[in-house]
Amino acid sequence: MKPEASPTLAEKLGTTAHLSPLLMKARRLGLDADGLERTAMQRGCDYYHDGSPPPPAPVSRADYSDGELAMALLNPALRYHPQTLRLGAAMLGAPGNDPVELARRAREERCEQVVSHIARAGRRFEPENPFWERLLALMPTTPPAKSGVLPHPTRFVAMTGITRRGVETVTQWIRPSSNSPTHG
Prior knowledge:
The longest helix has 14 residues, at 112-125. Helix 3 (33-42) crosses helix 4 (66-73), helix 3 packs across helix 5 (82-92) and helix 4 (66-73) packs parallel to helix 6 (99-109). This protein is globular. It has 184 residues and is mostly helical. A two-stranded antiparallel sheet has the order 1-2. The chain has eight helices and two strands, in the order H-H-H-H-H-H-H-H-E-E. The protein has helices spanning 9-13, 21-28, 33-42, 66-73, 82-92, 99-109, 112-125, 130-138; strands spanning 157-163, 166-173. It starts with 8 loop residues before the first helix and ends in an 11-residue tail after the last strand.
């Protein structure tokens, strides 16, 4: 008997998946869902990494940009996995991403609902960052996703309860670290 395939994000959201140009490009580059996650970790999403030495990056940013990687990880046609969505959220907020380009890709890849959910969380936790407001302004209005499917907004940030100043809540958006290799 053949094992059941993991449901796609589209199935969990109650919609249909489409043929994704970004996921087809990823496959041509040798990246499946696990490869996309590894690529995000290799590009600095070390918050989600287990600490073992990562293998060399199989795909350069020139071949598959951070924006493309974010949209692939957030793509409804990809298998459903909450960590994949958290990595996609981190890559969405990567320095240098262009909100105009991301909004265009979100429409092409039919992940506006997911991107809007993350951008609203970004605006909530980083109200001083104009990136999130600009991205939201470029996105169509979407209904909220089915409850419990997309990660809670607090899953996109690191929170501390105790700092050197004492007990306080400090939040920081999780994004690729700046010391990630630029060549891969």
